[in-house]
């Protein structure tokens, strides 16, 4: 199972919700996951009904079986200060640069620097080990930028490594790319069964493959149920109003003539939607990727709904110890056990 899971998708497809549910799904049975946010929207905090995330790793949920979900909102300025301290030991000089505005300039003006810092911080969490040599997190899940920007976002370290031929910047960029282009990483794309997001997903898959970045699953989000069987769909799509009126009359429904028009119109709209969804499923099937489908949550995405979506992931094989949905062997750390903080089961939210 890939240890670094990147979740992208066209705006409006629910990629942050999917990333959060995936983190919960992978944290079951005593595992620890880190959910990383890079766009500064505090979407994770809202989903888990917690306070705004600081620039530190904080436990935000307990998964069924006692696993833990931690979260981190990466701040590019703070990440740059960490970088300067790590490689150049600037200490107070780095803080002085921040006061002078140099850090803000570097993270907003210098091409690619912000993305290098964000991906670098996430990859550091993927590689980090404790004193016993075990990975601190079994999985790191990134709520990444939208599909149209994801390839450039992940591949920027390759460009930086080419520009800086030697030195710590070159070495850091190469280390990040070794993680991003390895079996440890999988980039999942979230879509809806609609033409525009499906087309953007197909384009995104092509770009990721061209950049030799590992593509994981397609997650079809907000899937609505089919309310009619095949015979009813054919009847509705054919506009057979007279047959429907006779059936209503035979069933003893009074005033059937007044009911026919709105019922037929609604049934025809449903049949048309089902037909369009089938067309989009065919496009997605042509990508040759494993697919997960998550249902539309009718009352919005509450904390309880996140756990329901995580359960859907598990039902469809996501988080299997031996083989993931893409057919890759597990690379995760051993499940943790013991009494530590928040080890109980249930849907509690950690402090």
UniProtKB/TrEMBL annotation:
Residues 320-351 are annotated as: Disordered. It comes from the Bacteria. Residues 339-351 have a biased composition (Gly residues). Residues 3-180 form the ArsA/GET3 Anion-transporting ATPase-like domain. Residues 325-337 have a biased composition (Low complexity). InterPro entries: ArsA/GET3_ATPase-like (IPR025723), ATPase_ArsA/GET3 (IPR016300), P-loop_NTPase (IPR027417). It holds the Pfam family ArsA_ATPase. This is Anion-transporting ArsA/GET3 family ATPase. The lineage of its organism: Bacteria, Bacillati, Actinomycetota, Actinomycetes, Kitasatosporales.
């Amino acid at each position: 199972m890939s240890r670094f899971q990147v979740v992208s998708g066209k705006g409006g497809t629910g990629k942050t919700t999917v990333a959060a549910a995936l983190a919960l799904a992978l944290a079951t049975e005593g595992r620890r996951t880190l959910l990383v946010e890079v766009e500064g929207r505090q979407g994770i905090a809202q989903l888990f009904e917690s306070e705004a995330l600081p620039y530190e790793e904080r436990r935000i949920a307990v998964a069924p079986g006692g696993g833990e979900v931690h979260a981190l909102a990466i701040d590019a300025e703070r990440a740059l200060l960490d970088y300067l301290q790590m490689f150049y030991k600037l200490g107070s000089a780095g803080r002085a640069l921040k006061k002078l505005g140099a850090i803000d300039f570097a993270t907003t003006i210098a091409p690619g620097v912000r993305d290098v810092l964000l991906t670098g911080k996430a990859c550091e969490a993927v590689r980090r080990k404790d004193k016993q040599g075990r990975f601190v997190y079994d999985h790191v899940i990134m709520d990444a930028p939208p599909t149209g920007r994801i390839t450039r976002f992940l591949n920027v370290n390759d460009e930086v490594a080419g520009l800086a031929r030697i030195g710590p910047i070159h070495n850091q960029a190469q280390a990040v790319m070794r993680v991003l282009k390895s079996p440890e990483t999988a980039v999942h794309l979230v879509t809806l069964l609609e033409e525009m997001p499906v087309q953007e997903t197909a384009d995104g898959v092509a770009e990721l493959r061209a950049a030799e970045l590992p593509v994981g699953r397609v997650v079809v989000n907000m899937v609505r149920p089919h309310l009619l069987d095949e015979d009813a769909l054919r009847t509705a799509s054919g506009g057979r109003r007279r047959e429907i009126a006779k059936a209503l009359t035979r069933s003893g429904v009074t005033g059937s003539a007044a009911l026919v028009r709105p019922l037929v119109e609604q049934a025809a709209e449903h049949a048309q939607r089902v037909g369009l969804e089938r067309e989009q499923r065919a496009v997605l099937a042509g990508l040759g990727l494993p697919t997960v489908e998550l249902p539309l949550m009718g009352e919005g995405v509450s904390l309880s709904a996140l756990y329901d979506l995580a359960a859907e992931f598990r039902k469809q094989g996501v988080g299997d110890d031996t083989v993931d949905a893409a057919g890759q062997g597990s690379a995760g750390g051993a499940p943790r056990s013991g009494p530590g903080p928040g080890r109980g089961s249930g849907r509690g939210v950690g402090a």
